[in-house]
Amino acid sequence: MTTSPVRLGGLELAPMDRLELVDDPEFPGISIVGLGMVGAVARRHGRVSVELVPTFRGCTALRFIEADIRRAFEPSDDVRVTWSDEPWSTDRVRPSTRARLAEEYGVIIREPDGSLLCPVCGSTSAVRDTSDSGPTRCRSVAWCDDCRNVIEVLR
Ligand SMILES: [Zn+2]
Q: How far is the CA of 132 from the centre of ligand 1 (A)?
């Protein structure tokens, strides 16, 4: 599992812009910034400090993400990645990222009222949870009674 082979030789990019280029290994094309995984980033005296909010503690993708972050910076940059204790929640996901997750991956996030919007047919009332266990610990599985599709729910 490797993602984001980003090396932008010599380009002067703000740290946050570089992090925009780092994808979540589970969702190629979806940046960790859009998923709300970046808690803080700072460049001081040649050192780049990145604090990440992991979507799920113990997620096996974390070490890949850390490696991808280092690759997004220059080899000469002193990049320090730390993991925050702050709990990640789906509220941290950008609206535009939310839309892309639904469109490109069929993965949805529970609406504030607890309902689930089917990414296939748009039904708001026919989606029901079927299983707490999904393909990864960050996702559960739901079912749409209207279009009869399996839907993944990011949690
Ligand atoms: Zn549906």
A: 19
